[in-house]
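User: Structure with flavin-adenine dinucleotide, tokens only please.
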Amino acid sequence: MKRGRLTPYGERLLRETPVLETLRGLDPRGVDEVLGIAETCAEFARLHAEPKALELDERMEQDPEYFDRELVKAAGNYHLFSLVVPKVLGGLAGKYMLTAASLGVEEICSACAGIGNMIAATGLGACPLLTPGGMPHWDTVLHEIVEGEKRGEPVLMAYAITEPSAGTDVEEPHFLARARIGMEARRVKGGYLLNGRKCFISGGKEAKYLTVCAATDRSRPLETWTVFLVSRDMEGFSVPRVERKMGQRACHAAEILFDNVFVPEENVIGYEGDGMSMGILAIMAASRGPVGAVGTGIARGVLKNFLSWARRERGGRKPIEEQRIQMEIADMAASIQECRGLILDHSLAGDKVFGSLLVNPMMKALFALPRELRLSRPYRSFLHSRLGKATSARLLRLLVSEDEMTRLLALASLAKFASTDMAMGIASRALQLMGPEDSEERRRVEKCYRDVKVTQIYEGTNQLNRLTWFMVEQEGSLRIELPRPPR
Ligand SMILES: Cc1cc2nc3c(=O)[nH]c(=O)nc-3n(C[C@H](O)[C@H](O)[C@H](O)COP(=O)(O)OP(=O)(O)OC[C@H]3O[C@@H](n4cnc5c(N)ncnc54)[C@H](O)[C@@H]3O)c2cc1C
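Assistant:
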């Protein structure tokens, strides 16, 4: 999209989201970039996701292991796997990274939430690398994501925190302190040995890299929760099975087995023991808003198909001519608009936090250094050293406050549970109104109804998200602590 001149898509999006129109008055370049990314996602949704949505859903009901590589390649051609990769590395993430990602996710999920989740799993897996502790891996792993897209062979990632004995428990500090954790990362010479299982990992079957949280002492999970970067090539790593899913089938949910997987010291993201704050809460503070956008996307898909159904004549009448149907449609539109407002509240607040890190002059100066230098042994040794880690932790403290991060978590949780519950309600209502008669629109709405359920479960169940909001905003009992260099 050319700066200054809007496409019809951009005009429509601004009309539907007045806050962006206001922001464009203040920062035309930044907002035009957001509109460009959203439009790219909308095009992918229209040309690739929507035509495949029903067929892929049916195929993966029969064969849950199936993986559509052509679709992955197509998404790579639109650079959708580098939505969260910083622009300094050739990715799409700039000043308004979260706003662009939220609007983009909504577009893709309005066509197929399974395909949306398959793409977003890489972004989620990459998120821990975007924390200062992940910087040593920018020029390797994140660079590989960008290069993979250029080659037509996208490099995928996944995020693995859930264990068979601990789901909700690993997403909240008070619960993790009492959790029965099965997986352990035992310290050995030069690194850690990972043993145990992770389950329900979106995109885990095909991911080349995974960010994995594990306790280094199972009897003290909260104090020792740590983020590791794991490569699927590591010995002892395997994917024994994928789930047979009800919805979002286009994205595998995999079980991952770690059998004495040696992970070198350099692959610890940040400090040992800061996994709850930096590996879970900071990630959820960014990602739960876009999960809300999965909800608004699904709800938009429902509304689109419901409208198309209502406009068709049956028995000499069109349902849309009835006032009660018109009012239902207006209610659906209002709920979607309301929730998009919550998502934008979160994403714009988040962009103030994360965007400021990405476009910070210090960051730009660092990445203005030639890549060969950044890959040189002395430079990389510095990044992995105590001093290097301490420098990035201090940089984070300089740019971001614990209050801001914690408040962002509350906004993210609110947007997530409100939007996904709203989408569940809309899908259910539309299905009831459409009745039992088969049609393509009804099949798409029925798929939305199945797809939306898991959005109320992953990234913290909606019960947990409500409690998170309460703990932050009403009790003050939950706080994101930024990493402190050990003395
Ligand atoms: C399709 C799918 C994809 C997923 N993708 C990923 C992924 O990519 N990576 C990953 O790590 N995980 C993933 N998950 C896991 C997901 O995050 C967990 O399922 C979720 O956190 C809930 O955990 P659980 O299933 O163990 O349920 P439980 O924690 O057993 O919860 C069961 C019920 O009890 C309630 N509950 C539990 N504890 C409390 C409490 N203390 N107070 C009040 N209520 C409570 C919950 O709200 C819920 O209603 C995925 C799950 C699914 C189904």
